[in-house]
Amino acid sequence: MTATNHPTDANATSPADPTTLESVADAAVERALRWWRDSGEGEGGGVGKQGEQDGQRLTDKITGKIDRRDKAGHAAEQLAKLVHDPDGVDYTMAFVDQVARPEDNATAARQLTKITGGSSVPGFLSSLDRAAMRLGGALAERLPGIVMPVARRRMRQLVGHLVLDSEGSALRDLLSDARSRGRQLNLNLLGEAVLGEREANRRLQDTMDLLRDPNVDYVSVKASSVVSQLNPWDFDGSVDRLVETLRPLYRIAAEEAGGTKSGRARPPFINLDMEEYHDLELTLEVFERIPGEEEFRHVEAGIVLQAYLPDSVAALDRLLDFAAKRVADGGAPLKVRLVKGANLSMETVSADLHGWERAPYATKAETDANYLRLLDRVLRPEHAGHLRVGVASHNLFSMATAVELARARGVEDQIDAEMLQGMAPTQQDAIEADVGRLILYTPVVDVRSFDVAVSYLVRRLEENAAEENFLHAMTDTGRRDAMDEQVERFRDSVGDRNDVAAEPRRTQDRRAEREPGTVTTPRAADAQSTTTFANEPDTDPALPANREWAKSIVSADADPGPETAPLIEDVADVDGIVDRAARVQVAWADLGEDGRADVLATVGKRLASRRAELLAAAVHGPGKTIAEADPEISEAIDFVRYYAHCARVLADEPGVTFTPNRVTVVSPPWNFPVAIPVGGMVAALAAGSAVIISPAPQVVRIAEVAVAALRDGLADAGADPDLIQLANTDEGDAGRALITHDGVDAVILTGASETAALFRGWRPDRPVFAETSGKNAIIVTPAADPDLAARDIVDSAFGHAGQKCSAGSLAILVGAAGESERLMNQILDAASTLEVGHGRDLGTDMNPLVEAPGQKLERGLTRLDPGEEWLLRPRKLDEEGLVWSPGIRDKVKPGSWFHETECFGPVLGIMRAPDLETAIEWQNAVDFGLTGGIHTLDADEVAFWLDRVEVGNAYVNRHITGAIVRRQPFGGWKGSSVGPGAKAGGPNYVAQFGSLADGGSHPLHIAPPSRAMGWVLRDVTAALRDAGVRVDGGDAGAGSGSGSGAGSGAGAGSRADAGSGAGAVSAGSTAADYLTTAAGSDAMALASEFGRPRDESGLIGEANVFRYRALPDPLIRVGAGSDPVKFARTAPAAIAAATVGGSVGTRPRPTMNLHPDAVDVEAVKAVASALEHHGLVEVEVMDDAAFEARVRETASERIRCLGDVTDGALAAAADNGSWLERAEVLTSGRFEMLHYLREQAISWSLHRFGHVAKDAEDDVNRALRK
Predict the structure, then answer these.
(1) Of 708, 473, 695, which Cα lies nearest the Cα of 603?
(2) Angle formed at CA 39 by CA 36 and CA 43, multiple of 5 degrees
(3) Which of 884, 7, 717 is nearest to 379 (CA)?
(4) Which helix (H) or strand (E) holds 1117?
(5) pLDDT tens digit sequence for 455-498
(6) DSSP states of 757-795 as a string?
(7) pLDDT tens digits for 751-796?
(8) Which of 444, 604, 754, 823 has a CA that sits 20 to 30 A from residue 909's CA?
C-alpha cells in the first residue's frame, strides 16, 4: 500500500498554533464532559462558567425530547446493566445461539430449561423478566409450541433497539422519525452466512431494494455479503467479481443523484464496510475501481477504515490521494467513516490459529491514539473539499476532539457525527443538539432469521463489556472515578498519537525467506527454537507480498518439469540401495538422540527455505491449489522440528534404553505428497534409522523436490545425505523386493487398507506401520449453527476434491436438522458454487483428481443405490475424467454401499437419523475409525458424543480435515490404522522405529499403586512363589519352565535380535521388587500421562486435547515359552490401562489367551489364576490353530504377544489388519501400558465469532470428565 505522506502536527505546525490537536485538547475534554452531564449520566464539576452556560442551552434544546427518549433511555439502561453484569454477555449470546437459533421448538425448549435452571438467570434482567424466564424454563419442555415463540419474541425485544426487524414497524417508525429530525440511518442488512451464490444474489437483491426505498438514504455493504467464496489468493479475480457485482448498486445511486426518480431529498449513499483484516486491501481496491469509473464520477460514496489497524494510516493517505485526484478530475467528493474496530476477538482467534501476528494494535490505548492521529491527519482545509469524515465513535472525547479540531481549522462541514443505533441514545441527543448532524449505524435483519444477528451482537456487547471501553466506564455507577480515568486515557492518547506504530504488524514475506533460517515474522522465529516446539506459521494471503509470491509459483516458469529419477526394475539395484543405507546408518545412530535432533534443526531450516519449490511441484504436478498445498508444507516443516523434539524427549525417558532400526522404507500416498512422506522420513531419521523412500508413481517429481531439500539439509549439518535415498521402484519385482528386503527393519505406509494387506502378506513378520482408509461422518444436531455446519461439511467433503483419508463423505442429520431447509439450502449453495479447476488458476476452489476415478469412486460419482437421489449430480468436466464437479447424494441408508465404502473423491452422502444415539451408531458402524465430527452448540451433546464416538481424531464445531502436528496428532482406530496405534505428529510416534529395553541412565519415576493393585501384586507374587519361582532373592526370573522372554523374535519396529532372555529382571533386583517397581511406574504413568487429557496448543478459541482411551477388548496371548514373571508384569499394565476409560459405561476386562503349553507351566497358570480370582481378567486356553482362527475372524485387533507366535498367526493378522505386538516387556509403565491404549485427538472450536464464553473451558472439562 503506497500513498503520499500527508502532514501531521509533528511536522506541519508549531506547538503554539491554536489549530494543533494539543491546543484543542482541553476544550475537547470540557465539551465531552458537558455532553456527558447533559445526557444525564454525569454529575459534578470540571467545566467552567462558559461551559455551564453552553450546557444549559444544550439542556434546553434536549428538554423537548424527553418523552421520546423514555423508551430509548430504558433500553440504554438495560444495556448498561447487561455489559456490567459478569454473566450478561455470555447469557445473551447463549440465549440467541441456543434458544432463538434452533428451528425446532423441542430443541430450543431443552436449551431454555438448561440456561434458566437454578440461579443461572443473570441480574441484568428485570425481576419480571427473570421470573418469566424461570417460568418459561419450567414449562418449555411441556409446552414448547407455546413457550418458545414467546421466549424468542421477548429476546428480540430486549436487543431490538440494537438490531431492527427489516420489515417491521419499528424500522419504519425509526426511519420516519429520523427523517423528521434530520437524522440519517446507515442501514446494514444482516443475513445468513453467504456460503454460495444463491444467498449472495438474494442479499444483493435485498440491498438493491433498500436503496430504491425512498425512505432509505444510507446503506452499508460488506464485500463478503454480496459475493460468495472470495478466494484470498485470487486477489485480482476477487476484485473483478466484486466490481461487477457492486456496479448495479452504484447505478441506483447514480440514477437518484439528480433526484429525478423519487424526488427524495438526497440520493442514496453507499458505504463499503469492512470487517476483518483480510478485507482491507480488497475493499480499498474495489472502492478505487468503482468510484473511479466515469459512470460514477458524480456519485458520492464512502468507505470504512478501522483505527485499530496500524495499516489504517497508509490506507487513509491512499484515500486522500485518490479523493483529491477524483475531485480534481471533476468528480464528486468521497467519504471515509473512521471507526475504532469491533472485531478484535475474531482477529485474535484467526491469527492465533494460523500462527500470524494479530493485525490490530495490542492495546486499546494504541487504538485510541491512532484514532486521534487519523483525525489530525484528515481534518485539514486542504482535504475538506474532497474527503468528508464520518467520526464514528461513542467515546465522547474522540467525538469532541473531532468537533473542536474541525472548528479550529475551519472545516466543520467536513465531519459527520456517527454513532450506533441503540447505544447511548441520550448522548446521541446531546451531541446532535450541539453538532447539528447525526448518522446512526443501524443493523436490520429479517425477523424469521433473527439468530444471524449473533455475529453483530457479539461484537457490540463484547466491546462494551470491556472495562477499558468508554461506554462501559460511562455507565459504571459503582465507580465515581471511572470518567476521571477516561480523561487521563484521552490525554495520554493525545500525546502518544504520533508515537504509536504506523506500520503493519503483519510482516510476513515469503519472497524474502529463500535462505535457510531467514524469517520475516516473530512467530516464525519461535518455530525455529530448539528448546521448545511451536508450529510453523501458514502463509498469509492478506499480504500483497505473499500474493505476488503465489503468482510467481503458479506461473509456467515455476513448473519443475517431469520427474528425473530412473525407474528401478532390477532387484540388484534394490540390494545396493539397502546396503548403502545400512552402512551410513551406523554413524547416524552413534550421534544419539540429541545429536540427531541438532541435525534435524538444520534440516528444518533448509526445508522451510524450499517452500516455493515444494508448492510449485504440488501445483504444477497433481494440480493442488495454493490454499490446500501451503498448509501441507507447514505441516512437513513441523514434522521435522517436532520429531527432533521427540528425539530429545526419548533420550531423557527414565528406565529405558532405545536401539534404532537400521533401515526404514517409507511408502507414501499421492494425495498428500509433501507432508506425509516428509513426516515418515524424518520420524525414522529422528529415531536413528536410515531411510529409503519409494514414492507413489503419480507424484515422483514432488518427492524428488522434497528429498533434495532434506538431503541438502543433512549436508548443511555435516551428515551424510545418503541417510535418505529415493528409490523409484516399479510396482513389480523391485518394489516387492524393497518391502521384503532382509536389510529393512520396518515399512511406513500411508495408503489403502488393501495396500497394507498386500505389503504385510508378502512378509507377515515385517512390521508395517500403516495409516490407511477412512469413511468419515459429520453429525449435525438441531442445536447446531446451520450456517457453520454447512460450511464445514462442504469444506470437509470437497477440499482437495475429497481426496483426503480424513474427508467427510457423510453428513448425518439428526431429527429436525434433517428437515431444515436452511441447512440443506446452505450445503447445496456452497457446494454448487465451488470453482473447479487446476491449481495453476488462483481462482480455483476445488482442484482436479490426481488420477481418473477407480472402480469405487466411479460408482460413487455415477450410480445411486435404491432409494437414493441426487441433490447435486456430479459432472465430468474434462475428457480425462480428472475434473469433476461436486456431488451430493441424499437418503443414504444405514448399511448401504455408500454408507460403508470409502470412495475417495468429491461426493457426499446425506443420512437422516432420528436421534443422536442412532447417528453415533451409524457413524461407528463402518470398519474404519479415522476422523469424525459433530456440530452442536449443546455441550451435553458433545460430551455424549465424545463418550461414544470411535475415531482417532474427533472434531467439534469445525471441519474434520487438516490435522496439525502436535495440535491434532493424526491417526485412526479400527481399520484405519495398522500398528501399535501411535499417531503421526504425536508424542509416541518416533519411539516406534526402534526397540526399547529396560535400562537407561535415568531411574524410573514411580508412584504408590492403588490399594486394589497392591492386593493383586501380593497375590501374584505369592502365586509365583508357590509355583517355585524365586521371587525374593537369587535369580528372579528363573521360574520353572520359563523359556524365551517376551522380546524374542522380530517385534514391532525392532530387530530380530532385540529380545532379552528369560526373566530379564534388572540386575540386583528380585521379582517382587521388579513387579512392585513396575506397578509404581504404571501408577505414575496413569497420574502424569495416560489419565490426564492435556492441551498443549495454548490457543485462545480452540481446545486441542490429546487423551488416551482403553482398548475395548485387550488381549494378551501367552504363547509357548512365555516367561511367567514377564506375564505377571504386563497383565497388571493391561489392568491399569483399563482404568483410563473406554466407551461410556464400560471398563474393559483384559483377556489372557493361554497356549496349552503355557498352561502346563505352573507359574504361568498360577499367575493367571490369581488375576482371575480378583475378577480383573478373563482366562481362555487356545492352541495355535484356534488362536490363528481367532485372529483371522476378528479384524483390526491389537494383541500383546508373549512367547512364541506362529507364522500362521502372523499371516492371519496381515490379512485382516490386526497387529501382534511382540516387543519386549518393559518395567516402564509409560511404554508397557501403551500396548493397551488408544490415542485420541479432540479439536473443539470454542469461540462464537471470536467470543469465548467464560464457561467454555468448563464445558470441555466436563465433556472429558477431567
Answers:
(1) 708
(2) 55
(3) 7
(4) strand 1115-1118
(5) 888 788 877 777 778 877 777 665 667 888 999 999 999 999 99
(6) HHHHHH-TTS-EEEE----EEEEE-TTS-HHHHHHHHHH
(7) 999 999 999 999 999 999 999 999 999 999 999 999 999 999 999 9
(8) 754
